[in-house]
């Protein structure tokens, strides 16, 4: 498994690969920010993980629910450049044309490691 | 399936109905201004197709004024890598705010900003190829495109370069255009700078010579620069945009086509909007935006020696109103536009219509409408 922790001036990025449809992220990747963009290099969309409390994490797939275009996390919300949909930081639609919230993934904290289930 | 290699087809659309009262004409009109259908198909994770088909003014009948059926976009999107893709076909380059994102629930007011209709001729689509990339190391997006150029014989007095767009229909490929944009997003701010430079003469060198025009990829150019900033903080949104257009060979264009093309134009607008119900716990999906926008533009800020100045193209507009979203996909809009222009130039008033109302520098418009997207 490849793990590279990069930092950008906005939100940290974490590159990895999935194994058996599971992505593992060390919890210390959240030292700098409550947001982390996880880039599973073997799947087509990134995942934004939001640390809600020390033990509660929420993972959102960065795939627009309107027509599958990748979204960007900009200024605390997700934006889709294709037709302009905007989702808030919990994934809810703020501006259409999207109607459904961003997909969320089951995420558990086990032994200081986040287990994100891609299924 | 959230992740996976399955192909899929998507359908969507948008439209808007629009009532307008014009105080100068003392007349009102109601119109189904736009009905647009999107069709998209994802062939694989790397290849997709996107399109928009638009019907303007509800119907198009032979020989009657108004109405249009147009392909607004139709392009293949190809992901070269995870953060970089190419668009090839008919697409809307990243210039200004409205050109890429023009759905009626993404802007305030029934009318798109006047500046982004008259100075930046949105929706401005041309044929070509573009590359879009998102940097990992910085919150920055870059885009660059090569497109077919404009047609200066189509420029019309009062609408700057708008009439010169080919919009994908039998465009001249002798003259080209280059356009690029840089977006930088930091915290609550998004900044963008974009530019366009393109030739406007698609004739063969011999034909162009006979009209004393420069042909070739960038012959008789149009150069456009634009910058905008958007700020968003909870209920407050602020947008500001400025643009300038330069047509250095306007004199030659006027000599060839007698269309009173100016040498330069500029414009800017500033808009503030506030969601009046953002704090209400029960108002999770609804919002009610109160907004005001000030726009200033001069479509003939400098003219060549063979041009005729038209002070009515030196305009300012104040638009204020409300946009109510019962759900994020439907916008109910009410606004007032107060427009002010300079005086008429009598030498441009040829064969005045005897039934036309007297010229006024100040005109009010009352606009009510509904926009939707899905
Ligand atoms: S695909 Fe995102 S708004 Fe259409």
Q: How would you characterize the overall build of this protein?
A:
The complex is a heterodimer of chains A (119) and B (374). Chain A is an all-beta fold and 119 residues long. Chain A is built from no helices and 13 strands. Chain A has two domains: 1-63 and 103-119, no CATH class; 67-102, no CATH class. Chain A is 0% helix and 42% strand. Chain A has a six-stranded mixed β-sheet with strand order 1-2-4-5-6-11, with no helix packed on it. Chain A has a four-stranded antiparallel β-sheet with strand order 7-8-9-10, with no helix packed on it. Chain A is globular, with a radius of gyration of 14 Å. With 374 residues, chain B is mostly beta strands. Chain B has a single domain (9-373), classed as Porin. In chain B, strands 1-2-3-4-5-6-7-8-9-10-11-12-13-14-15-16 form a 16-stranded antiparallel beta barrel. Chain A binds chain B through residues 6, 8-11, 13, 39, 41, 43-45, 61, 63, 66-68, 72, 74-77, 81-84, 92-99, 103, 105, 118, and chain B through 2-3, 8, 10, 12, 14, 38, 40, 42, 45, 48, 50, 82, 100-101, 103, 105-106, 134-139, 141, 185-190, 232, 284-285, 327-330, 373-374. Residues 64, 66-67, 69, 80, 82-85, 97-98 of chain A line the site of FE2/S2 (inorganic) cluster. FE2/S2 (inorganic) cluster (FES) is lined by residues 64, 66-67, 69, 80, 82-85, 97-98 of chain A.
Give structural attributes.
A: 119 residues; disordered N terminus; B: 374 residues; mainly beta; Porin; 16-stranded antiparallel barrel; 3 helices; 16 strands; 51% strand; globular; binds FE2/S2 (inorganic) cluster
Summarize the topology.
The complex is a heterodimer of chains A (119) and B (374).
Chain A: E1 4-6, E2 13-16, E3 22-26, E4 35-40, E5 47-51, E6 57-61, E7 72-74, E8 77-79, E9 86-87, E10 93-95, E11 104-105, E12 107-110, E13 113-117
Parallel strand pairs in A: 2-4
Antiparallel strand pairs in A: 1-2, 3-13, 4-5, 5-6, 6-11, 7-8, 8-9, 9-10, 12-13
Chain B: E1 8-22, E2 27-42, E3 47-56, E4 68-81, E5 84-91, H1 115-118, E6 126-134, E7 140-148, E8 176-186, E9 189-198, H2 205-210, E10 222-233, E11 236-246, H3 250-257, E12 264-275, E13 287-302, E14 314-327, E15 330-341, E16 362-373
Antiparallel strand pairs in B: 1-2, 1-16, 2-3, 3-4, 4-5, 5-6, 6-7, 7-8, 8-9, 9-10, 10-11, 11-12, 12-13, 13-14, 14-15, 15-16
The site of FE2/S2 (inorganic) cluster has 11 residues of chain A, from loops.
């Amino acid at each position: 498994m490849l793990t590279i922790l990069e930092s950008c001036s906005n939100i940290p990025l974490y590159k990895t690969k999935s194994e058996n449809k599971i992505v593992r992220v060390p919890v210390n990747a959240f030292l700098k920010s409550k947001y982390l963009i996880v880039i599973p290099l073997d799947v087509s969309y990134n995942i934004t993980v939001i640390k809600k409390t020390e033990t509660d994490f929420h993972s959102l797939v960065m795939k627009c629910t309107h027509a599958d275009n990748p979204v960007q996390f900009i200024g605390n919300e997700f934006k889709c450049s294709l037709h302009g949909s905007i989702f808030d930081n919990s994934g809810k639609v703020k501006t259409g044309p999207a109607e459904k919230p961003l997909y969320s993934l089951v995420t558990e904290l086990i032994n200081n490691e986040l287990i994100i289930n891609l299924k | 399936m959230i992740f996976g290699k399955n192909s899929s087809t998507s359908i969507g659309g948008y439209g808007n109905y629009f009532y307008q009262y014009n105080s100068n004409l003392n007349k009102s009109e109601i119109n189904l201004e736009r009905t647009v259908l999107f069709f998209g198909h994802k062939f694989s994770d790397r290849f997709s197709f996107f399109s928009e088909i638009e019907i303007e003014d509800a119907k198009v009948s032979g020989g009657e004024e108004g109405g249009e059926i147009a392909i607004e976009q139709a392009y293949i999107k190809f992901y070269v890598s995870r953060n970089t893709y190419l668009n090839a076909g008919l697409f809307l380059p990243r210039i200004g705010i409205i050109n890429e994102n023009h759905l009626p629930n993404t802007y305030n007011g029934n009318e798109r900003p006047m500046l982004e209709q008259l100075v930046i001729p949105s929706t401005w689509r041309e044929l070509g190829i573009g590359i879009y990339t998102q940097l990992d190391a910085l919150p920055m997006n870059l885009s660059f495109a090569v497109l077919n150029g404009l047609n200066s014989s189509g420029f019309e007095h009062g609408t700057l370069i708008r009439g010169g767009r080919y919009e994908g229909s039998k465009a001249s490929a002798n003259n080209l255009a280059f356009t690029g944009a840089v977006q930088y997003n930091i915290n609550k701010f998004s900044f963008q700078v974009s530019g366009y430079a393109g030739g406007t003469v698609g004739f063969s060198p011999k034909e162009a010579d006979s009209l004393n025009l420069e042909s070739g990829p960038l012959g008789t150019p149009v150069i456009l620069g634009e910058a905008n900033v958007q700020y968003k903080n909870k209920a407050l949104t602020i947008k500001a945009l400025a643009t300038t257009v330069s047509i250095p060979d306007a004199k030659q264009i006027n000599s060839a086509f007698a269309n009173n093309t100016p040498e330069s134009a500029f414009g800017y607008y500033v808009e503030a909007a506030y969601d009046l119900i953002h704090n209400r716990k029960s108002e999770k999906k609804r919002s009610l935006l109160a907004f005001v926008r000030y726009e200033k533009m001069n479509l003939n800020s400098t003219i060549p020696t063979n041009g005729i100045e038209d002070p009515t193209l030196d305009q300012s507009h104040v638009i204020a109103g409300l946009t109510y979203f019962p759900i994020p996909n439907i916008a109910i809009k009410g606004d007032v536009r107060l427009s002010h222009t300079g005086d008429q130039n009598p030498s441009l008033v040829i064969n005045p219509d005897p039934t036309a109302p007297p010229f006024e520098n100040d005109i009010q418009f009352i606009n009510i409408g509904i926009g939707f997207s899905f």
